[in-house]
Each structure stands twice: as C-alpha cells, then as structure tokens.
Write a structure and sequence with these properties.
The protein is of the alpha+beta class and 164 residues long. The chain has 4 helices and 8 strands, in the order ααββββββββαα. The longest helix is centred in the C-terminal third of the chain and has 33 residues.
Length: 164
C-alpha cells in the first residue's frame, strides 16, 4: 500500500496534482522516499539540486537568510520543495531542515522528463500552469513598478527588449 500512499500524497502537491493516475503511479514507483530526523538537513543554500521534494510527512523549514534569522517558510505534507529542480539541476536558494521527524518523495529531473515524454497531456497541463504562474509574476512586478513610479513621481521609461 506504500505506492498508493505515495500517489495520494503526490496528487496533493502543486504540479503533480495536474497528472493523471498512470503518470502519478510512474512517479510514485520510480521516485525515492527518504526519511529525516528532527534537525537533519536535506540540503544547504548553494548546493546543486538533485530534484524536487514532495513532503509526505512532517515539516521542513526553508531558510534563505544569510544570518540565521527565523525561517521564512515551513513546508508540510503535500508541499513541493524545489519546483525548478524538477526540470533542471540548479543552485538551491535556501537551506532545508527537518523540524520534526519527516519523510519526502524525491523526484529527479530525469524522472520528470520521462513522465513528460510518456504523458504529453500532463506535459501540456504543466506547461500551461507554469505559463499562468509566470503571467501572474509579471503582472505583480508591473504593479510594483507602477507603485515605485508613483512614489518617485516621475515616469521611468521602459527599456526595449534588446536593451535589457
């Protein structure tokens, strides 16, 4: 029943909730489950990523600060840690530490690539979701830009794409 449990957890996580049952079964079967004790470090800020993690049990603190200030985010069951790391090996932007006994499901970029190749409908759904996320980010940045212009009191000319 562990496979069914992993499928249930994955189906709650962002992006994975867009996958059909067969795609989730492949991810659950081919991924790696890891357990951690309280205080164990999953990875450190600056480490090269080894995939994305879905929290299946416990709580993982993500701390991006330089000075050891309190962590900015706590990831619980169903949370996805390292969305970009599902698709590419990148530098970790935070340190992840288990705040209590925890378990994760690690999904490597090669596994994710296989899922997207074998399930084109899932690939299209993920692409659409990520495009929507990028649009929301761009709109949010434009709102901040407009607020800064209002504070400054003058128009800042937008740069042409080839000047950026």
């Amino acid at each position: 029943m562990a496979l069914d449990d992993d499928i249930a957890i994955l189906s709650q996580a962002p992006l994975f909730n867009l996958l059909g049952r067969d795609a989730l079964r492949l991810v659950a079967f081919a991924s790696e489950s890891r357990t951690y004790r309280e205080g164990d470090v999953l990875f450190r800020k600056g480490d090269r990523s080894d995939g994305g993690y879905v929290v299946s049990r416990g709580a993982i603190a993500l701390d991006a600060s330089e000075n050891g200030a309190p962590e900015a985010f706590m990831a619980g069951p169903g949370a996805l840690i390292g969305q970009a790391a599902l698709f590419a090996r990148i530098e970790r932007r935070a340190t992840a530490t288990a705040r209590e006994p925890s378990a994760i499901i690690r999904v490597t970029p090669s596994l994710m690539r296989r899922v997207l190749e074998e399930f084109p409908d899932a690939a299209a759904a993920i692409q659409d979701a990520m495009a929507d996320e990028l649009v929301r980010l761009t709109e949010g940045l434009e709102r901040v830009r407009q607020q800064l212009i209002a504070i400054d009191g003058e128009e800042i000319p937008a740069k042409a794409p080839d000047e950026a």
